Amino acid sequence: VPTDVYEVWEHLTPPAFVDEKLERINASLDPTATDRNYHPTTKGELIRKEGYTLFIALHQHVVKSQLWSNVRGEYELMEPIALGKHGLNHNRYHILLRKSAMTAGPKPPSGVDDPWWFVDPYYEAFNKHRAACYRPGYIKTGDETCCVWTGAEGIYDWNKCPHVTWNEDKPDPLSLMSKTTADAQSRVMMYAEPMKRKEDNAKNEMNLQYGVTTATTLRMFGGGLSGGNRVDVADSWFGGVKTVVNNMLVNNAYM
C-alpha cells in the first residue's frame, strides 16, 4: 500500500511512461557537455521535475522565475520558496522541461491512415493501468479536460497534437480536449479519451449502436469503473433520458 506522495504517484503512473520519457530526454542531452545542466538525467530527477511542474501549476499567482529566488521581498512576511534548494536549479528545470516536449516520432506504418495512431496507445496504457491498480469509490464524476495549446508548432502533427478543439465557452478556447472520468472522493483520474475530429470519433466503440453522446458516456463510466450500484455525477451534456437509462442498464450505475 502506498505510504507517501511519491509512492502514490509511482503506483498510479504506467511504468512505461517514465521509461519512455527518460529515454527520449537523454537522447537529446550530452554527457560530455561542459555545462552540467545539459548532462543526461535520471529517473529520480525526472520525477522531481514532474513534482516541480505540479508545484508551479498550483502557484500561478507567483512569477515563475521568482520561485527560485533566495531573496525575500521588501514587503513579504514569508521566507522565499527557493525551489533550487530541493535539487533543480532554474536552468536545469527548463532544459528538462524543453527536452520533455514530444519530438518527431516514428512515421506511421505503411497503410495506416489514422492521425491518432501514435497518441492513442498513451491513452490506452493510462486507462488500462488505472483500472488495474486503483479501485474507485461509489461516486464517479465525468467531464472534459482541456490541455491548452499555446503555440502553433505541433498542431495537426500526427506525432504531437493531431487535433485541437475551439470552444468559445472556455477561458482558453484552443485546446486538446479529452473526455475524462475521476473518482469523486479521491479526485484520482481514472479514464481519458481524446476528442477527435467528427469522422474519427465516429469510429469509436458503440457509437453506431447508441449514438455519440450515450456511447461516450458508457465508455467513460464503464469497463472497470462500472457495477456495484455506483453513482455517476456529470453535467447536463450527459443528462439525456437515453443516456441515463442506458448507463443504468449497461453500467449498473445511477446518473
Task: Tell me about this structure.
The chain is an alpha/beta fold. Helix content is 35%, strand content 13%. The chain has helices at residues 5-12, 15-26, 43-57, 90-99, 120-133, 198-201, 207-210, 212-221, 241-251, and strands at 139-148, 165-166, 174-183, 189-194, 230-233, 253-254. It is globular and about 60 Å long.
- Rg value: 21 Å
N/C terminus separation? 31 Å
Give the mean pLDDT: 84
State the helicity in percent bands: 25-40%
Structural class: alpha/beta
Q: How many distinct beta strands?
A: 6
Number of helices, counting only DSSP H or I runs of 4 residues or more: 9
Oligomer: single chain
Low-confidence stretches: none
Major pleated sheet? 6 strands, mixed
Task: Draw up the topology in text.
Elements: H1 5-12, H2 15-26, H3 43-57, H4 90-99, H5 120-133, E1 139-148, E2 165-166, E3 174-183, E4 189-194, H6 198-201, H7 207-210, H8 212-221, E5 230-233, H9 241-251, E6 253-254
Parallel strand pairs: 1-5, 5-6
Antiparallel strand pairs: 1-3, 2-3, 3-4
Helix pairs in contact: 8-9
Task: Give a brief rundown of this model.
The protein is built from nine helices and six strands. With about 260 residues, it is of the alpha/beta class. The mean pLDDT is about 85.
Can you give keywords for this protein?
255 residues, alpha/beta, six-stranded mixed β-sheet, 9 helices, 6 strands, 35% helix, globular
